[in-house]
Amino acid sequence: MQSRRHFLQNLSVTALGLPLLNSAGFPFEQNSFAPAADGAVLRVALMGLGSYANRVADAMRDCKRAKLVGVVSGTPSKITDWQRRFSIPEKNCYDYTSFDRIKDNPEIDAVYVTTPNGLHHDHVIRAARAGKQVICEKPMAINAREGREMVDACKKAGVQLLVGYRMHFEPKTVEVIRMRQNGEFGKILFFQGLSGFRIGDPSQWRLNKTLAGGGAMMDIGIYSINGARYMIGEEPVWVTAQETKTDPQKFKEGVDETIQFQLGFPGGAVASCLSTYSMNNLDKFFLNGDKGFAELQPATGYGPIEGRTHKGLLTQPHITHQTIQMDEMAAILLDGKKPLVPVDGEEAVKDLTIIDAIYQAVKTGQRVALKLH
Ligand code: NAD
Predict the structure, then answer these.
(1) pTM reported for the whole predicted model
(2) Out of 176, 192, 268, 307, which residue is the most buried by the measure of CB atoms under 10 Å away?
(3) Side-chain-side CA neighbours of residue 187 (13 Å)
Protein backbone atom coordinates (compact mmCIF):
# COMPACT_ATOMS: atom_id res chain seq x y z
CA MET A 1 0.00 0.00 0.00
CA GLN A 2 2.79 2.34 0.96
CA SER A 3 4.69 1.72 -2.27
CA ARG A 4 1.52 2.27 -4.29
CA ARG A 5 1.06 5.55 -2.48
CA HIS A 6 4.56 6.61 -3.29
CA PHE A 7 4.06 5.53 -6.86
CA LEU A 8 0.94 7.67 -7.15
CA GLN A 9 2.60 10.59 -5.48
CA ASN A 10 5.63 10.45 -7.74
CA LEU A 11 3.41 9.94 -10.72
CA SER A 12 1.47 13.07 -9.85
CA VAL A 13 4.52 15.22 -9.74
CA THR A 14 6.73 13.82 -12.44
CA ALA A 15 5.36 11.40 -14.99
CA LEU A 16 2.21 13.35 -15.65
CA GLY A 17 3.99 16.69 -15.57
CA LEU A 18 0.67 18.44 -15.32
CA PRO A 19 0.15 22.15 -14.87
CA LEU A 20 -2.50 21.33 -12.32
CA LEU A 21 0.21 20.23 -9.97
CA ASN A 22 2.14 23.45 -10.12
CA SER A 23 1.60 25.47 -7.00
CA ALA A 24 0.31 28.99 -7.54
CA GLY A 25 -1.09 31.87 -5.47
CA PHE A 26 -3.69 31.48 -2.78
CA PRO A 27 -7.05 31.36 -4.54
CA PHE A 28 -9.41 32.47 -1.79
CA GLU A 29 -9.49 35.94 -0.29
CA GLN A 30 -11.39 35.48 2.90
CA ASN A 31 -9.71 32.39 4.21
CA SER A 32 -8.66 32.51 7.81
CA PHE A 33 -7.39 28.93 7.81
CA ALA A 34 -3.64 29.06 8.18
CA PRO A 35 -1.79 27.10 5.49
CA ALA A 36 -0.33 24.00 7.09
CA ALA A 37 3.29 22.99 7.22
CA ASP A 38 4.48 21.04 4.22
CA GLY A 39 2.92 17.59 4.04
CA ALA A 40 0.21 18.16 6.66
CA VAL A 41 -2.82 15.94 6.36
CA LEU A 42 -6.41 17.15 5.92
CA ARG A 43 -8.55 15.43 8.54
CA VAL A 44 -12.00 14.82 7.04
CA ALA A 45 -15.44 13.90 8.40
CA LEU A 46 -17.90 12.45 5.89
CA MET A 47 -21.56 13.43 6.26
CA GLY A 48 -24.23 11.12 4.78
CA LEU A 49 -22.87 7.57 4.67
CA GLY A 50 -24.45 6.37 1.42
CA SER A 51 -22.98 4.80 -1.67
CA TYR A 52 -20.80 7.73 -2.76
CA ALA A 53 -19.46 8.29 0.76
CA ASN A 54 -18.33 4.64 0.75
CA ARG A 55 -16.51 5.16 -2.53
CA VAL A 56 -14.78 8.30 -1.25
CA ALA A 57 -13.83 6.64 2.04
CA ASP A 58 -12.32 3.62 0.30
CA ALA A 59 -10.40 5.85 -2.11
CA MET A 60 -9.06 7.94 0.77
CA ARG A 61 -7.24 4.88 2.14
CA ASP A 62 -4.66 5.56 -0.60
CA CYS A 63 -4.44 9.32 0.00
CA LYS A 64 -1.23 10.89 1.17
CA ARG A 65 -2.63 14.26 2.20
CA ALA A 66 -6.21 13.43 3.31
CA LYS A 67 -7.49 11.08 5.99
CA LEU A 68 -10.97 10.02 7.04
CA VAL A 69 -11.23 10.70 10.79
CA GLY A 70 -14.95 11.33 11.44
CA VAL A 71 -18.51 10.60 10.35
CA VAL A 72 -21.94 12.21 10.50
CA SER A 73 -24.95 9.91 10.09
CA GLY A 74 -28.53 9.55 11.28
CA THR A 75 -28.19 5.75 11.39
CA PRO A 76 -26.41 4.42 14.54
CA SER A 77 -25.64 1.03 12.95
CA LYS A 78 -23.83 2.73 10.07
CA ILE A 79 -21.73 4.70 12.55
CA THR A 80 -20.57 1.57 14.35
CA ASP A 81 -19.89 -0.18 11.06
CA TRP A 82 -17.80 2.76 9.80
CA GLN A 83 -15.97 3.04 13.15
CA ARG A 84 -14.91 -0.56 12.73
CA ARG A 85 -13.99 -0.30 9.04
CA PHE A 86 -12.08 2.97 9.25
CA SER A 87 -10.89 3.05 12.90
CA ILE A 88 -12.90 6.15 13.72
CA PRO A 89 -12.91 7.17 17.38
CA GLU A 90 -16.23 7.68 19.19
CA LYS A 91 -15.45 11.36 19.83
CA ASN A 92 -15.45 12.02 16.05
CA CYS A 93 -18.92 10.54 15.45
CA TYR A 94 -22.00 12.75 15.13
CA ASP A 95 -25.63 12.50 14.17
CA TYR A 96 -27.61 15.31 12.52
CA THR A 97 -28.68 16.66 15.95
CA SER A 98 -25.26 16.67 17.61
CA PHE A 99 -23.44 17.75 14.43
CA ASP A 100 -23.09 21.46 15.31
CA ARG A 101 -20.87 20.46 18.26
CA ILE A 102 -18.21 19.55 15.70
CA LYS A 103 -17.04 23.15 16.11
CA ASP A 104 -15.49 22.13 19.44
CA ASN A 105 -13.55 19.27 17.86
CA PRO A 106 -10.02 20.37 16.93
CA GLU A 107 -9.24 16.99 15.36
CA ILE A 108 -11.49 17.56 12.33
CA ASP A 109 -10.45 20.09 9.67
CA ALA A 110 -13.09 19.56 7.00
CA VAL A 111 -16.59 18.20 6.49
CA TYR A 112 -17.37 16.45 3.19
CA VAL A 113 -21.12 16.60 2.50
CA THR A 114 -22.42 13.57 0.56
CA THR A 115 -26.11 13.77 1.44
CA PRO A 116 -28.91 14.14 -1.17
CA ASN A 117 -28.74 17.38 -3.18
CA GLY A 118 -31.64 19.14 -1.47
CA LEU A 119 -29.89 18.89 1.91
CA HIS A 120 -26.53 20.32 0.81
CA HIS A 121 -27.56 23.94 1.48
CA ASP A 122 -28.38 23.34 5.14
CA HIS A 123 -25.50 20.92 5.73
CA VAL A 124 -22.83 23.12 4.13
CA ILE A 125 -23.97 26.22 6.02
CA ARG A 126 -23.94 24.33 9.32
CA ALA A 127 -20.44 23.00 8.63
CA ALA A 128 -19.24 26.52 7.77
CA ARG A 129 -20.77 27.96 10.93
CA ALA A 130 -18.89 25.30 12.87
CA GLY A 131 -15.69 26.76 11.39
CA LYS A 132 -14.83 23.73 9.27
CA GLN A 133 -13.55 23.74 5.70
CA VAL A 134 -16.29 22.34 3.49
CA ILE A 135 -16.28 19.96 0.54
CA CYS A 136 -19.71 19.39 -0.98
CA GLU A 137 -20.86 16.92 -3.60
CA LYS A 138 -22.28 18.01 -6.95
CA PRO A 139 -24.74 19.50 -7.64
CA MET A 140 -23.68 21.87 -4.87
CA ALA A 141 -27.28 23.05 -4.42
CA ILE A 142 -30.63 22.82 -6.15
CA ASN A 143 -30.52 26.31 -7.67
CA ALA A 144 -28.14 29.25 -8.05
CA ARG A 145 -29.76 31.31 -5.27
CA GLU A 146 -29.09 28.54 -2.72
CA GLY A 147 -25.60 28.15 -4.13
CA ARG A 148 -24.81 31.84 -3.65
CA GLU A 149 -26.09 31.68 -0.06
CA MET A 150 -23.71 28.79 0.60
CA VAL A 151 -20.76 30.68 -0.91
CA ASP A 152 -21.64 33.74 1.18
CA ALA A 153 -22.01 31.71 4.38
CA CYS A 154 -18.58 30.15 3.88
CA LYS A 155 -16.97 33.53 3.17
CA LYS A 156 -18.62 34.97 6.27
CA ALA A 157 -17.35 32.09 8.37
CA GLY A 158 -13.84 32.40 6.90
CA VAL A 159 -13.79 28.85 5.54
CA GLN A 160 -13.30 27.54 2.02
CA LEU A 161 -15.96 25.73 0.02
CA LEU A 162 -14.91 23.13 -2.55
CA VAL A 163 -17.14 20.95 -4.73
CA GLY A 164 -16.53 17.31 -5.71
CA TYR A 165 -15.66 18.03 -9.35
CA ARG A 166 -13.42 14.95 -9.58
CA MET A 167 -12.91 15.22 -13.37
CA HIS A 168 -10.91 18.42 -12.86
CA PHE A 169 -8.07 16.24 -11.54
CA GLU A 170 -8.40 13.27 -13.91
CA PRO A 171 -5.18 12.89 -15.96
CA LYS A 172 -6.63 12.37 -19.49
CA THR A 173 -9.12 15.21 -18.96
CA VAL A 174 -6.33 17.43 -17.70
CA GLU A 175 -4.23 16.57 -20.77
CA VAL A 176 -7.05 17.62 -23.13
CA ILE A 177 -7.45 20.90 -21.23
CA ARG A 178 -3.70 21.46 -21.43
CA MET A 179 -3.69 20.79 -25.19
CA ARG A 180 -6.59 23.21 -25.69
CA GLN A 181 -4.82 25.86 -23.63
CA ASN A 182 -1.71 25.35 -25.80
CA GLY A 183 -3.79 25.97 -28.93
CA GLU A 184 -3.31 22.41 -30.21
CA PHE A 185 -6.95 22.18 -31.35
CA GLY A 186 -6.91 25.64 -32.90
CA LYS A 187 -10.07 27.72 -32.68
CA ILE A 188 -12.69 25.71 -30.80
CA LEU A 189 -15.94 25.47 -32.74
CA PHE A 190 -17.95 22.60 -31.29
CA PHE A 191 -18.46 20.45 -28.21
CA GLN A 192 -20.77 17.50 -27.81
CA GLY A 193 -21.63 16.16 -24.33
CA LEU A 194 -23.73 13.05 -23.81
CA SER A 195 -24.56 12.27 -20.19
CA GLY A 196 -27.08 9.70 -19.13
CA PHE A 197 -28.06 6.35 -17.70
CA ARG A 198 -31.27 4.41 -17.22
CA ILE A 199 -32.42 5.00 -13.64
CA GLY A 200 -34.05 2.18 -11.65
CA ASP A 201 -36.10 2.26 -8.44
CA PRO A 202 -38.82 4.93 -8.84
CA SER A 203 -38.93 5.54 -5.06
CA GLN A 204 -35.32 6.72 -4.71
CA TRP A 205 -34.48 10.31 -3.67
CA ARG A 206 -33.02 11.08 -7.13
CA LEU A 207 -36.61 11.07 -8.45
CA ASN A 208 -37.97 13.21 -5.60
CA LYS A 209 -38.05 16.90 -6.56
CA THR A 210 -37.49 18.17 -3.00
CA LEU A 211 -34.42 16.03 -2.34
CA ALA A 212 -32.98 15.99 -5.87
CA GLY A 213 -33.86 19.53 -7.02
CA GLY A 214 -34.83 18.20 -10.45
CA GLY A 215 -34.06 15.07 -12.41
CA ALA A 216 -31.29 13.86 -14.72
CA MET A 217 -29.99 17.40 -15.27
CA MET A 218 -29.09 17.85 -11.60
CA ASP A 219 -27.49 14.44 -11.30
CA ILE A 220 -25.83 13.60 -14.61
CA GLY A 221 -26.53 16.40 -17.10
CA ILE A 222 -24.36 18.64 -14.92
CA TYR A 223 -21.32 16.69 -16.19
CA SER A 224 -21.99 17.89 -19.75
CA ILE A 225 -22.54 21.46 -18.51
CA ASN A 226 -19.36 21.54 -16.48
CA GLY A 227 -17.51 19.58 -19.20
CA ALA A 228 -18.55 22.03 -21.94
CA ARG A 229 -17.05 24.82 -19.82
CA TYR A 230 -13.71 23.17 -19.05
CA MET A 231 -13.30 21.61 -22.50
CA ILE A 232 -14.08 24.84 -24.40
CA GLY A 233 -12.46 27.07 -21.76
CA GLU A 234 -15.05 29.85 -21.91
CA GLU A 235 -18.28 30.74 -20.14
CA PRO A 236 -21.49 30.33 -22.18
CA VAL A 237 -23.54 33.42 -23.05
CA TRP A 238 -26.81 31.79 -24.06
CA VAL A 239 -28.73 28.57 -23.70
CA THR A 240 -31.61 26.87 -25.51
CA ALA A 241 -33.21 23.60 -24.33
CA GLN A 242 -35.90 21.08 -25.20
CA GLU A 243 -37.43 18.44 -22.91
CA THR A 244 -38.94 15.06 -23.71
CA LYS A 245 -40.73 12.87 -21.17
CA THR A 246 -41.80 9.31 -21.99
CA ASP A 247 -42.81 8.26 -18.45
CA PRO A 248 -44.65 11.00 -16.51
CA GLN A 249 -45.50 8.53 -13.74
CA LYS A 250 -41.85 7.89 -12.91
CA PHE A 251 -40.61 11.39 -13.78
CA LYS A 252 -43.11 13.62 -12.00
CA GLU A 253 -43.56 17.40 -12.30
CA GLY A 254 -40.18 19.11 -11.87
CA VAL A 255 -38.20 15.88 -12.34
CA ASP A 256 -36.68 15.93 -15.83
CA GLU A 257 -36.19 12.67 -17.72
CA THR A 258 -34.47 13.85 -20.92
CA ILE A 259 -33.33 17.34 -21.89
CA GLN A 260 -31.33 18.33 -24.95
CA PHE A 261 -29.63 21.67 -24.58
CA GLN A 262 -27.33 23.94 -26.52
CA LEU A 263 -24.87 26.48 -25.12
CA GLY A 264 -23.40 29.36 -27.09
CA PHE A 265 -19.91 30.63 -26.26
CA PRO A 266 -18.45 34.09 -26.87
CA GLY A 267 -15.71 32.77 -29.21
CA GLY A 268 -18.35 31.30 -31.52
CA ALA A 269 -18.30 27.71 -30.29
CA VAL A 270 -21.55 25.87 -29.70
CA ALA A 271 -22.11 22.96 -27.31
CA SER A 272 -24.82 20.42 -28.06
CA CYS A 273 -25.66 18.22 -25.08
CA LEU A 274 -27.99 15.47 -23.91
CA SER A 275 -28.98 14.74 -20.32
CA THR A 276 -31.12 11.68 -19.64
CA TYR A 277 -32.33 9.17 -17.09
CA SER A 278 -33.77 6.84 -19.72
CA MET A 279 -30.82 5.61 -21.81
CA ASN A 280 -27.60 3.79 -21.03
CA ASN A 281 -24.21 4.04 -22.77
CA LEU A 282 -24.19 7.83 -22.80
CA ASP A 283 -20.95 9.16 -21.38
CA LYS A 284 -19.09 10.92 -24.17
CA PHE A 285 -17.36 14.26 -24.80
CA PHE A 286 -16.22 15.42 -28.23
CA LEU A 287 -14.34 18.68 -28.76
CA ASN A 288 -13.62 20.02 -32.22
CA GLY A 289 -11.42 22.89 -33.30
CA ASP A 290 -10.10 24.03 -36.67
CA LYS A 291 -6.78 22.23 -36.06
CA GLY A 292 -7.85 19.06 -34.28
CA PHE A 293 -10.18 17.20 -31.96
CA ALA A 294 -10.44 15.34 -28.66
CA GLU A 295 -12.80 12.55 -27.81
CA LEU A 296 -13.37 11.03 -24.36
CA GLN A 297 -15.56 7.94 -23.95
CA PRO A 298 -16.21 7.16 -21.17
CA ALA A 299 -15.70 10.80 -20.25
CA THR A 300 -16.91 11.09 -16.66
CA GLY A 301 -17.53 7.61 -15.24
CA TYR A 302 -15.29 6.31 -12.47
CA GLY A 303 -12.86 5.15 -15.09
CA PRO A 304 -10.62 4.28 -16.58
CA ILE A 305 -11.43 7.21 -18.84
CA GLU A 306 -10.59 6.43 -22.48
CA GLY A 307 -9.81 8.95 -25.13
CA ARG A 308 -7.94 10.09 -28.20
CA THR A 309 -7.11 13.26 -30.03
CA HIS A 310 -6.04 13.97 -33.63
CA LYS A 311 -2.51 13.20 -32.35
CA GLY A 312 -3.36 9.70 -31.12
CA LEU A 313 -4.53 7.80 -28.06
CA LEU A 314 -4.44 9.42 -24.64
CA THR A 315 -2.19 7.23 -22.53
CA GLN A 316 -2.11 8.97 -19.14
CA PRO A 317 -2.54 6.35 -16.39
CA HIS A 318 -5.78 5.81 -14.48
CA ILE A 319 -5.71 6.98 -10.88
CA THR A 320 -8.76 6.41 -8.67
CA HIS A 321 -10.57 9.71 -9.14
CA GLN A 322 -11.52 10.23 -5.52
CA THR A 323 -7.97 9.52 -4.33
CA ILE A 324 -6.36 12.17 -6.52
CA GLN A 325 -9.28 14.54 -5.85
CA MET A 326 -8.86 14.34 -2.08
CA ASP A 327 -5.07 14.68 -2.21
CA GLU A 328 -5.40 17.72 -4.48
CA MET A 329 -8.18 19.21 -2.36
CA ALA A 330 -5.97 18.82 0.72
CA ALA A 331 -3.27 20.78 -1.13
CA ILE A 332 -5.81 23.48 -2.05
CA LEU A 333 -7.15 23.75 1.49
CA LEU A 334 -3.91 23.36 3.39
CA ASP A 335 -1.31 24.93 1.09
CA GLY A 336 -3.38 27.32 -1.03
CA LYS A 337 -2.61 25.41 -4.22
CA LYS A 338 -4.55 26.65 -7.25
CA PRO A 339 -6.17 23.92 -9.37
CA LEU A 340 -6.04 23.98 -13.19
CA VAL A 341 -9.84 24.34 -13.30
CA PRO A 342 -11.54 25.83 -10.22
CA VAL A 343 -13.36 23.48 -7.85
CA ASP A 344 -14.78 26.15 -5.56
CA GLY A 345 -18.29 27.28 -4.71
CA GLU A 346 -18.26 30.02 -7.37
CA GLU A 347 -17.54 27.39 -10.02
CA ALA A 348 -20.58 25.44 -8.81
CA VAL A 349 -22.79 28.55 -8.81
CA LYS A 350 -21.97 28.95 -12.53
CA ASP A 351 -23.21 25.42 -13.26
CA LEU A 352 -26.33 26.05 -11.16
CA THR A 353 -26.99 29.32 -13.00
CA ILE A 354 -26.82 27.40 -16.29
CA ILE A 355 -29.17 24.72 -14.92
CA ASP A 356 -31.67 27.41 -13.83
CA ALA A 357 -31.44 28.87 -17.35
CA ILE A 358 -31.92 25.44 -18.98
CA TYR A 359 -35.11 24.88 -16.97
CA GLN A 360 -36.29 28.38 -17.92
CA ALA A 361 -35.52 27.73 -21.60
CA VAL A 362 -37.51 24.47 -21.47
CA LYS A 363 -40.46 26.26 -19.87
CA THR A 364 -40.52 29.28 -22.18
CA GLY A 365 -39.20 27.76 -25.39
CA GLN A 366 -36.99 30.84 -25.62
CA ARG A 367 -33.25 31.32 -25.81
CA VAL A 368 -32.02 32.51 -22.38
CA ALA A 369 -29.08 34.90 -22.06
CA LEU A 370 -26.38 34.11 -19.49
CA LYS A 371 -23.98 36.44 -17.68
CA LEU A 372 -21.54 34.30 -15.73
CA HIS A 373 -18.58 36.64 -15.22
P1 NAD B 1 -27.14 7.65 -1.40
O2 NAD B 1 -28.62 7.61 -1.37
O3 NAD B 1 -26.42 6.39 -1.64
O4 NAD B 1 -26.58 8.30 -0.07
C5 NAD B 1 -27.15 9.42 0.54
C6 NAD B 1 -26.93 9.36 2.03
O7 NAD B 1 -27.55 10.47 2.67
C8 NAD B 1 -27.52 8.09 2.65
O9 NAD B 1 -26.61 7.50 3.55
C10 NAD B 1 -28.73 8.60 3.42
O11 NAD B 1 -29.01 7.83 4.58
C12 NAD B 1 -28.28 10.01 3.80
N13 NAD B 1 -29.38 10.90 4.11
C14 NAD B 1 -29.36 11.80 5.08
N15 NAD B 1 -30.53 12.44 5.19
C16 NAD B 1 -31.32 11.92 4.22
C17 NAD B 1 -32.66 12.17 3.81
N18 NAD B 1 -33.43 13.10 4.43
N19 NAD B 1 -33.15 11.48 2.79
C20 NAD B 1 -32.41 10.56 2.15
N21 NAD B 1 -31.13 10.27 2.49
C22 NAD B 1 -30.59 10.95 3.52
O23 NAD B 1 -26.76 8.73 -2.51
P24 NAD B 1 -25.34 8.91 -3.18
O25 NAD B 1 -25.34 8.26 -4.50
O26 NAD B 1 -24.27 8.56 -2.22
O27 NAD B 1 -25.35 10.51 -3.47
C28 NAD B 1 -25.05 11.45 -2.45
C29 NAD B 1 -24.53 12.74 -3.08
O30 NAD B 1 -23.33 12.46 -3.79
C31 NAD B 1 -25.46 13.37 -4.12
O32 NAD B 1 -25.40 14.78 -4.03
C33 NAD B 1 -24.92 12.90 -5.44
O34 NAD B 1 -25.20 13.78 -6.52
C35 NAD B 1 -23.44 12.86 -5.13
N36 NAD B 1 -22.72 11.89 -5.97
C37 NAD B 1 -21.60 12.30 -6.61
C38 NAD B 1 -20.90 11.43 -7.41
C39 NAD B 1 -19.64 11.85 -8.09
O40 NAD B 1 -19.12 11.09 -8.91
N41 NAD B 1 -19.10 13.02 -7.78
C42 NAD B 1 -21.36 10.10 -7.55
C43 NAD B 1 -22.50 9.71 -6.87
C44 NAD B 1 -23.17 10.61 -6.07
Answers:
(1) 0.91
(2) 176
(3) 8
